[in-house]
Write a structure and sequence with these properties.
Length: 129
């Protein structure tokens, strides 16, 4: 006889696979867009190089992808987890949370620097203090 949790486990596994695919897609699109923007800036000889927003947009996409991948891991462990699965999820969650934390810290620093760069260019262009 089939256990009641078997269909739930199958649904959770299927949803986790879709969510994981979305995370991978986010990374692939982010890499493609970042490469395109980098190449355009290189050809145009933009200053500053690389453009300020390049790392910010790429970092935001990576952060979003990490959230999707963590969600997929949680879904896979949600139905009748074993202690081994819980330990694996805890390790993965800790690593991804640490990566996310440091990425967010970098993004905040880059955002502040980009704002200072814009303010400096505005002051130089307009002569305002």
């Amino acid at each position: 006889m089939e256990h009641l949790s078997d269909p739930l486990r199958a649904v959770a596994q299927a949803v986790a696979t879709v969510v994981e695919g979305i995370g991978v897609l986010v990374v692939a699109v982010a890499v493609g867009l970042a490469l395109l923007r980098y190449t355009v800036a290189l050809v145009k000889r933009d200053v500053p190089f690389p453009p300020d927003g390049l790392r910010l947009n790429f970092g935001r996409s990576l952060t979003l992808a990490l959230e999707f991948l963590l969600a997929a891991d949680i879904l896979r462990t949600a139905v009748e987890p074993t202690w081994d699965e819980i330990a694996r999820l805890a390790a993965i969650a800790a690593i991804r949370t640490a990566l996310n934390f440091f990425l967010q810290h970098e993004l905040a620093a880059d955002t502040r620097q980009a704002a200072r760069n814009v303010k400096g260019r505005d002051q130089m262009a307009g002569g305002a203090p």
